[in-house]
């Protein structure tokens, strides 16, 4: 480039000197103007150079690009597409409406090297950018994806922008959609691993994904979902052809879930490895089938506050409000056992059964036990989203095993004590406002009075409920209730 400028400058000088001689030294061009003229001429020469690929035979170009994309980038295009050459923002071939085995690509930009455009046979591809593409993966494609991830990615970067990834079952029904805002993948020759980086959205949850794979050795996946305050780090070690082991860490709010696992035949068997939630230890084990998603989980908690499960920023609340668990293709069967070591707790232990099936969430057969007084059982429950509110409806059955212990706990006057064995009621709980409504109350299968229900409304604001207030209201109800 410097030589071209120098030659043009010499040419301009010779021309100007001839003009000077013919005009008796009246014509003068400054050094700055000569430099500007040289730059303009050079710019035009450079543009003409970049336009040289327009002279290539279009059929030859198409075949050449298809061949190089296949051999260098593992992108196999069908030959039916529209191709054109552009020089901005940098020289590239623009391919529209192309297809591969797994994708329909609206725009495919193939950026080429600017070196030696005079020789069309030396054409080199520097980078590929895919835009507005729809990728479709069936169940049978996952094996192919896994096998491809075990091979080296292309050495040159492939970018993906503003695209969608559709995961489908064998009946071509969409299981989930990932909206990709931007991503890229290539083989990092410096660090010797495959690298895949993606920013996208799934179930309306923005997330970031980073994947590193040391071929035939170790994989590392990091996922962040800022809206959920969630971070997942997974390290995966290949043991043999049929089995792999790994370590997984999930951090969300005040909880750290650390898990050891093994994988065989698309089934994951896992157990806790020093997990904690709100400063309480968690022990768990279970089994997860990948496709379709089917989770069986058993959890044991020591001295864990049940209220933490239902706080507005708890793990369960955040996942439920995201809408992720309402997917009909997800099945979850979870049993949580909680034992309380501290004194002055209302319950000594709890058994919470959390089920997700066909897009419905329930806590049926959950039991909260006070060894001295009795227990509360949950049935016909339903957890759902309505107008951006998280609502729980459930029927409760309260069995009182020892009324004397109950009245002692409530500090009830002896003359007001009555022999009550069972209370049934329906609740509607709004997690967002923390309000609870009681309906259809029956005491030993007897209907209660309107005055009784008016007093019950004192419990509606759960934010103001405490042990002192609850004792006072319950004693009013006991005094008002007439044994049938």
Protein topology:
Layout: H1 2-22, H2 31-50, H3 58-73, E1 82-86, E2 92-99, E3 103-112, E4 125-137, H4 141-149, E5 158-168, E6 174-188, E7 193-202, E8 205-214, E9 218-225, E10 230-238, E11 243-252, E12 255-264, E13 267-272, E14 275-277, E15 280-289, E16 293-302, H5 306-309, H6 315-321, E17 330-339, E18 349-357, E19 360-362, E20 367-370, E21 374-386, E22 389-400, H7 403-410, E23 422-430, E24 435-443, E25 446-447, H8 450-456, H9 467-480
Parallel strand pairs: 4-5, 16-17
Antiparallel strand pairs: 1-2, 2-3, 3-4, 5-6, 6-7, 7-8, 8-9, 9-10, 10-11, 11-12, 12-13, 12-14, 13-15, 14-15, 15-16, 17-18, 18-19, 18-20, 20-21, 21-22, 22-23, 23-24, 24-25
Helix pairs in contact: 1-2, 8-9
Alpha carbon gap, first and last residue: 104 Å
**What's the helix count?**
9
Strand content: over 45%
- Got a strand count? 25
Low-confidence stretches: none
Helix content: 10-25%
User: Biggest β-sheet, characterized?
Assistant: 25 strands, mixed
Rg over alpha carbons? 35 Å
Mean pLDDT: 81
Sheet/helix structural class: alpha+beta
Principal-axis shape: elongated
Assembly form of the protein = single chain
């Amino acid at each position: 480039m410097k030589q071209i400028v120098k030659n043009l400058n010499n040419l301009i000088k010779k021309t100007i000197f001839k003009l000077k001689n013919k005009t008796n030294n009246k014509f003068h061009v400054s050094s700055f103007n000569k430099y500007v003229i040289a730059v303009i001429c050079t710019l035009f020469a450079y543009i003409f150079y970049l336009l040289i690929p327009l002279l290539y035979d279009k059929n030859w170009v198409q075949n050449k690009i298809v061949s190089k994309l296949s051999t260098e980038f593992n992108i196999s295009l069908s030959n039916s597409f529209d191709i054109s050459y552009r020089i901005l923002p940098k020289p590239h071939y623009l391919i529209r409406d192309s297809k591969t085995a797994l994708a329909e690509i609206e725009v495919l930009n193939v950026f080429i090297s600017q070196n030696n455009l005079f020789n069309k046979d030396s054409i080199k591809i520097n980078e590929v950018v895919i835009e507005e593409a729809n990728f479709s993966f069936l169940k049978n494609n996952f094996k192919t994806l896994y096998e491809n991830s075990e091979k080296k990615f292309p050495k040159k970067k492939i970018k993906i922008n503003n695209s969608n990834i559709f995961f489908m079952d064998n009946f071509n029904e969409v299981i989930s959609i990932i909206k990709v805002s931007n991503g890229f993948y290539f083989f990092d020759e410096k660090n010797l691993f495959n690298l895949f980086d993606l920013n996208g959205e799934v179930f309306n949850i923005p997330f970031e994904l980073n994947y590193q794979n040391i071929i035939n050795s170790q994989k590392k996946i990091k996922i962040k979902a800022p809206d959920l305050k969630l971070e997942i780090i997974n390290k995966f070690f290949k043991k043999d052809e049929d089995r792999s082991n790994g370590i997984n860490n999930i951090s969300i709010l005040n909880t750290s879930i650390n898990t050891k696992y093994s994988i065989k035949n698309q089934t994951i068997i896992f157990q806790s490895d020093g997990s904690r939630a709100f400063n309480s230890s968690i022990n768990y084990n279970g089994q997860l089938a990948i496709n379709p998603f089917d989770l069986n989980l058993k959890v044991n908690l020591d001295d864990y506050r049940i209220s933490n499960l239902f706080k507005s920023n708890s793990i369960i609340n955040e996942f439920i409000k995201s809408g992720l668990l309402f997917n009909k293709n997800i099945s979850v069967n979870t049993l949580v056992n909680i034992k309380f070591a501290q004194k002055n707790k209302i319950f000594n232990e709890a058994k919470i059964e959390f089920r997700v099936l066909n897009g419905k969430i329930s806590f049926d057969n959950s039991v909260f036990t006070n060894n001295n007084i009795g227990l509360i059982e949950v049935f016909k429950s339903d957890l759902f989203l309505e107008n951006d509110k998280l609502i729980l409806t459930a029927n409760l059955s309260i069995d009182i095993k020892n009324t004397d212990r109950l009245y002692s706990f409530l500090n009830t006057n002896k003359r007001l004590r009555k022999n009550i064995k069972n209370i049934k009621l329906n609740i509607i709980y709004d997690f967002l406002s923390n309000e609870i409504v009681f309906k259809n109350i029956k005491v030993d299968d007897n209907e209660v009075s309107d005055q009784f229900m008016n007093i019950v409304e004192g419990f509606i604001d759960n934010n103001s409920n405490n042990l002192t207030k609850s004792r006072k209201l319950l004693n009013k109800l006991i005094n008002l209730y007439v044994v049938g």
